Amino acid sequence: VAQAVMKKAAELAPDSLMPGGRPDPLIRRQHGHIGKPVSRVDGPLKVRGAAPFAAEVALDGMAYAALAYSTIAKGRIAAIDTAAAEAAPGVVLVMTHRNAPRLNPPPRFLSGDKAAAGDDSPIMQDDRVRWNGEPVALVLAETQEQADHARSLIRIAYEEEPAATSLATVSQAAGGCEVGTFMGEPLRAVVGDADAALAAAAHKVEVVYRTPGHNHNAIEPHAATLAWRGDELFVHDATQAVAHTAWSMAQIFGLEESQVHVTSPFVGGGFGAKGLWQHQVLAAAAARLAGRPVRIALSREGVYRIVGGRSPTEQRVALGADADGRLTAIIHRGVTPKTRHSPMPEPFILPTQSAYASETIALEVQTCYLDMVANTFMRAPGEAVGTVALECAMDELAEQLGLDPIELRIRNEPDKDPISGRPFSSRNIVAAYRAGAERFGWDRRSPTPRARREGEWLVGMGCATATYPYHRMPGGAARITLDADGRARVDVAAHEMGMGTATAQAQVAADRLGLPLEAVTVRYGDSSLPGVILAGGSQQTASVGLSVMMAHQELVGELLKLAGNDSPLAGLRAEEVESADAGLRKLDEPGRFESYASILGRAGRSELAAEGSAPMPLETMHWSMHSHGAMFCEVRVNAVTGETRVSRFLGSFDCGRILNPKTAASQFRGGIIMGLGLALMEETQFDERKGRIMNRTLADYHLPVHRDVPEIDVIWTDIPDPHAPMGARGIGEIGITGTGAAVANAIYNATGRRVRDFPITLDKLL
Ligand code: MOS
To answer: What's the CA dihedral at 422, 423, 425, 428 to 10 degrees?
Structure first.
């Protein structure tokens, strides 16, 4: 319904997507706080250990929770013996499906505006087991160690049923697959007859790329510390969705939304996984049974068992081109598993939707059900692994054509969105490639594989395109409160997961309000604050920035009313003034000015607050909006051991206006580092016999450490997007996209080996 409403509204008002039909003044402002490399306002708290994380909040009388996880993939609990656990030292309570309170099903993410659950399985409500690792018991004890020990004493007998745990088996069975959906839309697109065009193409590549499952590994594992006070629930959570979590917990426990309070001032990384999973619900249920506050902090294994990750994919990309290297066919099809309780399969065709011009296009994600932990959002779901297949295939085609891979991409640059036909709001991939190629020294790359050797090391370079869509979800709102000293506070239900939210938004608010940066504070991470804002889809900055713009507009109106007839501003309308120098002034008559402090002072007010809501995200109905990038990688592959070392990496981005170069560079680098892990290390080891994830710790799930990460150079076009608030598109997820392909293409250039099965571990290069 929301989509239909938006489409209708877009038809009615095609040119006035920004509030009031005017462009955001911050898109063009040159000499403000935006664009300055301001250090993180929360930096001092973090380095002093004074930033409170969810598992560090101490509540009086708190008990500690430990979870027991099922060891079968499907079946039922035939018997469960908790006697030894209940008798163990310090144990307060053992909760299983037999004594857990009755709970409503968790609202599955995307099923409603505030639904937060990554999985909508009933939570400890019956004897059924739905995946290997599902929580089957919770122990509460006086200490974490006592809870962990007692949990080990629980004995469970299962009646096992045949489970679907092999992607190959299920996907090859007749009727085993169906077209997947993402955000309610089928993961399928057809332009012309791509199979016929491929058959007739002068040049073609047809390749299959495989990516494994990935587990989430935020530096802070999931945790919550919570307490009931009467019928009100107070949750200190690690979440990227405070308002969604509060509403969803209220649904589950049959409460009013106002009875649940979620705070989450600091989150040690989210990447899509810090939503509502079973642990918060089980902890709240146990707290109610025991009548005590509870802390639940998942172990690394706990995250792997109950928090979804990225599912494996098998992707076939076929590209047809004419003699000039112009694409005549793009086919990107493949298969990935899903579960009956997760809202999404891994949507790996997403990046291909707007990548290249081609006469024909055929995209499709086939999905099949497995009995496993839910697939969920993991940094650039779809694009992260979709660009692996697409951008490696482009490299393979370039080689066949004898074309430079950058030139091939430039030749196929689309002038409008090839699927939707919408114009691009702003697209400067070519500029990003040119700037990147020059800075990286692309002209020193030999097109011939294995051409450069330094001792044992084969050296090569590769590139790939990065891409991630601009999103803005409905529900953004913010409040600005001015005080009598002319200071401002922005209140918004936003999140700080390490990206510098408060810092960037303080810059934005200071520029909107005409205040020095020191005069603005941003309060966030609390479900009682305005807005239903997800720190996801790389959209938080746009959502908050536009909400602040709307709150500012309201504030200006209130200030003019308050200023009254004795003010130099008397008689002016909101459209006639702007914020500057800590006050309001007439647009074309700067002499007519009054400071905020003066307006409030004359009115005898200690503060003035105004709230604004972001309008529906109509901009995405009119324009194809995407962040872009050109990734450059140099690798050294050891000819003796097969070990790959990434020796240089450059990300050249086109993401609209960059609000804070310091925090933005960290976002880009962080994404690229995650992409290096995807390329070379990360792999969920899934035992298809038992449907069990075999990795349990970072000792057997490998991530890049400092020694694996070279100096990463990042540059950007800084070309404002005229259709995005502040001219800025998202920067959080794009860094992981294109990176895997840039590494793989560099490895090919170094070694002459195409490894199409990720991660590219040394055994595959020997
Ligand atoms: Mo992101 S995967 O939308 O947190």
So the answer is: 130
